[in-house]
Amino acid sequence: MEPIFDKLYQFTYKIPGMPLDCHQYLLLRDPAILFSVGSADMARDFLPKVKELLASRPLKYLFISHREWDECGGLAVLHKMFPETIVICSQNAAGNFKFNDYDGKVIACTPGQPFTDGGLELVFLPYPVEPHYNLGLLAYEKNSGVFSSADLFLKGGDTAGVVQESNWKDLVDAIPENFLNMGPQQPKTIAALRTINPEFVAVGHGPCFICR
Ligand SMILES: [Fe+2]
Ligand SMILES: [Fe+2]
């Protein structure tokens, strides 16, 4: 399997009944981290591929942006296959994972909190995600330049492996007001986005972006 960007692997599934792709990503740094685990069906299908890519290395972390079926529906599946993996998520999501049959390790983080482990340096951004303004997180991994944007640049169509060239400032400027019902806290997210400078935007749904 070829990476979509440096040490970054994308796993794509169609969302049933919708013209929308759902992407998950493995960032094969030391330690390795997965961005989103997808639904249970997706997890059952792609986690064996993750295991293959890891070879004998552990999957230390799973980052979950927010508590929604396409981000964390596969948590119990992951926990069976990778019992040592630690979930990184917002305080809000961390309090709710028992509903996903997950009782593994969780680190609840807040926007701006520094998080460094070996070759990983994560920056967390606030994400007042739909549908209930739940406080989620977005994650930027500084050393790789990879930004995990969850639903932020959501677009439909067939987008597996699709990467478009763009410019970070233009991308942020083009986010519509109240995008996906982000509500009154959207300006906080936009302000936080302006403090980072990603090289690659790993989107949850739609084409990815390489920033020049
Ligand atoms: Fe979502
Ligand atoms: Fe999503």
Automatic annotation (TrEMBL):
Superkingdom as given in the UniProt entry: Bacteria
Domain annotation ODP: ranges: 20-172
Keywords, sorted A to Z: Electron transport, Iron, Transport
Keyword set includes Electron transport: yes
Pfam families referenced in this protein's UniProt entry, alphabetically: ODP (PF19583)
This protein's name: ODP domain-containing protein
Organism of provenance: Succiniclasticum ruminis DSM 9236
Lineage, broadest ranks: Bacteria, Bacillati, Bacillota, Negativicutes, Acidaminococcales
